[in-house]
Amino acid sequence: MESDLKYKILNDKKLGRYLVANQPLQKGSLIFNDVPFAIGPKQDSPPVCLGCHGFWKKSYYCSKCGWPCCNQSCENNSIHREYECDVFVKSQAKFQHVSDSTKPCLQFDCITPLRMLLSKEKNPVRWEKEVAVMEDHETERRQKPTWDVDNVNIVGYLREPCKLRDRFPEEIIQKVCGILEVNSVEIPSYGGPNIRGIYPNLAIMSHSCVPTVVHTIISGGEEGIPQNLEGINKFDANPNCTFCCEDNLSATSCILCYSKSTEAQIWAAHDISKGDKLELCYTHVLYCTLQRRYHLKQSKFFDCDCKRCADPTELNTNMSSLKCNGCENGIILPVDPLDAESTWNCSNCKYYTTSDVVHRVVNTIQKEIDRLEESIYGEVDDREEELKWYQNILHPKHSILLGLKYTLSQAYGQVKGYRIEELTVSKLKYKIDMCNELLQILNIISPGQTRMRGVLLYELYGSLLKLDKMELKLGNITMDQFSSRTEEVLKILKESSEILVREDKKSSKGALGLLAIEKYNALSLSLQ
Questions:
Q1: Distance (Å, rounded) from C-alpha 257 to C-alpha 243?
Q2: Which of 429, 384, 390 has its CA nearest to residue 407?
Q3: Which one, of 198, 180, 214, 31, lies nearest residue 130 by Cα?
Q4: Which of 223, 239, 208, 243 is nearest to 447 (CA)?
Q5: Better-predicted residue by pLDDT, 228 or 466
Q6: CA 96 to CA 504: how far, in whole Å?
Q7: What is the DSSP secondary structure assignment for residue 2, as one 8-state letter?
Q8: Predicted confidence band of residue 120 (pLDDT cuts 50, 70, 90)
Q9: Radius of gyration over alpha carbons of the chain, in Å?
Q10: Torsional sign, CA 50, 53, 57, 59
Q11: How many Cα atoms occupy the beta-carbon half-sphere of 289 within 13 Å?
């Protein structure tokens, strides 16, 4: 019954369908689970195994259709065998061999749309109720070059080489392409490139640059089953599974059902009142307004006018602000941040500049930062140099600099030469300051129990504990003071573990959550 759900669906002219809380929700509470309608490779994906979506090593092809797989087990995975494999066999649509399996493969652009179309035939009721009503922004997409590309690589390929002309008209294939482009969610992969999926209820949630909810993706496979199922809501049992249905178990308890799912879990980031909107951030919360609004316009086809975007100071964070060239203490802010061509004025003098100039400055700096991001942490010294240099141009709390600090907050303590045991007192204090600064910003732009907060709290815990041990050894604090400080550190670690334990156990964040629990238990025992 709808009254039993923690959310309900409403509709309005501006937002379309959206979700609101159907009851008061406590922070950290699970609101609902969502099972995908279809999953598969992202556009511009390199060749992957069509059974497990792992990187393809060019050593095995499906014995039936001849398309990439890892082995016989993967070719028999139902996600491949019961979907595109049969189509490729009947049509004799062959995979064209590639010389470099690490580069984008246009042949794979058709896989996820094809799985959507086949799911439509297999699950017509779910298609009509949950997917057909999704926005595909056909009018806007027709104006983009990708429309013609999709017409060739997906529509044309499925209707001609795959011989599906009589099953799927051009209009429905383009509609599926649009639904995927606008509504799909990225699914982390731990043995290949990230993939994408359509989650019907997740897609209904509206956007805000100050979100109220967060989501995690729990990948299929026995290894991905949470060790503790307590608190995880039941979702509908698989009618084809005799195990969970005959024994009247929840589907989350059934390995047969769960291992075939890639479940999305939606959590309340903070306390939410009944009737409040359930809002996700469709873009990166650490982007500045220019970057967020551009990304949302290009990928979701709307102009965000949330309270953060509408405020020139981004809720007093200055995440979009530049330093003034004309005076010493002024900062450059947009007159109207909702106008992409707005003039940018100094807060202290008469200096002004154009939006084009600001765009060029931000984009140029971002490209240089992205170059560093090609490695996991990059060179710490290089990042420090970038941080120091760009502070001459950007406000100290500009989003680009905050992104650098977020990376550095993890690099200090983990990178060779900067491991936690190698850090000096001054470096530990520097890392602690970065963590606290980022946490203060998150309290404004993404409050509550978020993945980024969990990571920062874990980094903060390790640094504070190490610093306190050094201070105790140097005789700067007493044992009683050390014990008191350790109790505060324990609270930080506890919150970190509560947040990160929700992550997929196969992910780096999920593994960090399990480690946080171990550290918490050990530290608690040491205080007894």
A1: 9
A2: 384
A3: 198
A4: 208
A5: 466
A6: 35
A7: G
A8: very high
A9: 25
A10: negative
A11: 30
Q: Select from 82, 83, 63 the least CA-distant residue to 72.
A: 63
d(Cα 443, Cα 176) in Å, to the nearest integer?
38
Closest Cα partner for 482 from 494, 470, 495? 470
Cα separation of 138 and 302, whole Å? 13
pLDDT-derived band of residue 110, with 50, 70 and 90 as boundaries?
very high
Here the contacts of 294-297 (C-beta below 8 Å, separation 24 or greater) are: 296/207
Of 390, 424, 418, the closest CA to residue 404 belongs to 390
Largest Cα–Cα distance in the chain? 81
Q: What is the four-CA torsion angle of 300, 305, 311, 314, rounded to 10 degrees?
A: -30
> Mean pLDDT for the chain?
90
Q: What is the pLDDT of residues 301-321, one digit of tens each?
A: 999 999 999 999 999 999 999
Task: Kindly list the domain boundaries of the chain, sorted by start residue.
Answer: 2-36+198-280, 40-179, 290-411, 421-528
Residue 254 pLDDT more than 50?
no
Euclidean distance between CA atoms 204 and 19, whole angstroms = 7
Phi, psi of 38 (to 5 degrees): -160, 150
- Give the helix/strand (H/E) hosting 526: helix 508-527
- Closest residue by Cα to residue 467 from 521, 517, 421, 416: 421
CB neighbours of residue 133 within 10 Å: 14
What is 2-36+198-280's CATH number, 2.170.270.10, 3.30.1490.100, 3.40.50.620, 3.30.590.20? 2.170.270.10
In this structure, is the dihedral angle defined by the CA atoms of residues 337, 343, 344 and 347, taken in order, positive or negative? negative
